[in-house]
Write a structure and sequence with these properties.
- The chain is mainly alpha-helical.
- The protein has a domain at 19-53.
- Helices cover 83% and strands 0% of the residues.
- It is built from two helices and no strands.
- It has helices at 7-30, 35-62.
- It is elongated and about 45 Å long.
């Protein structure tokens, strides 16, 4: 995706981008009514996305 970047760069990029995607998905799909439910919905979606991609991230770090 980005030329001459190490696998660690992509791991860190995932670490920053996935919570943002999780928060957006939670906001759009769950339509939370309060700030508290919005925060927890975003965290749960982020955790789900990170867990799904963890296997591929572990392979990147091993190389």
């Amino acid at each position: 995706m980005f030329p001459k970047r190490s696998p660690v760069f992509y791991f860190r990029l995932d670490f920053l981008v996935l919570p943002l995607i999780g928060a957006l998905l939670a906001f759009v799909l769950l339509d939370p009514v309060s700030l508290k439910s919005s925060i927890f919905a975003g965290l749960s979606w982020s955790g789900t996305l990170i867990a799904l991609l963890k296997k591929s991230n572990n392979k990147i770090l091993e190389n």
